[in-house]
Amino acid sequence: MTGENGVLTPEAIERRVRELGQWFHNIDLKGVQTAPDHFLGDYPRVKWQRFAHAIPQDLSGMSVLDIGCNGGFYSIEMKRRGAARVVGVDYDDAYLAQARFAAEVSGADIEFRRLSVYDVAQLGERFDLVLFMGVFYHLRHPLLALDLIREHVAGDLVVFQSMMRGASDVEPVRDDYHFWETDHFERPGYPRMVFVENRYCGDETNWWIPNRAGAEAMLRSAGFRVIDHPEEEVFVCRVGDRSAWATPVYPSSGSAPGPNRED
Known about the structure:
alpha/beta; Rossmann fold; 7-stranded mixed sheet; two-stranded antiparallel sheet; disordered C terminus
């Protein structure tokens, strides 16, 4: 049911929202909430309000890539800040259908494509701002994903968010440790990831969960320089140099590591 000039009525929006299934993003579509009973509250708006200040208020002339766009909340917010071009990608057709509808109701001109993070090279371009929110811990191969983002689509700014567990401490990490040194592995502030073999929080797609030090270390290794940490799970990064050790396979030359290596 539409009103004058073909504008969707609240009743029509409500009906279509329910037809599109369960939403993970709670988005206000002209007074209709897409996920009013979200277990995290008004999500992701409650999180967005804690780090929105860390992203340029005026994105005029900028291109934005939203990897794992889900229902389109962040894509729409980027368009509201004046981004010239916003591309949202996700591998889930249901989420893409939700995102397209949310953008339509919001009057936001956004391109949505079905791609996984491992396929971002197919886009064939770099973006001024890349959002990589709430995807990392759902990946079987998370560091590969960061490498691909750095290699193919990151132009300047990257906003990264991941669920994290463990200590929030971050201790300095030396360039190398002797084979017999092991105490650092047990310290709370040492970079680490925990592997979820089955499910966590009822979700079989939760695979790897870092502590804060682990998230920062993997970002650095992939070639991102953390410039801001505005929210517990959010890091704002600039494209930088990759780690000297960031090779796709075991080095073909050099001394093999082992207990006899003294350097």
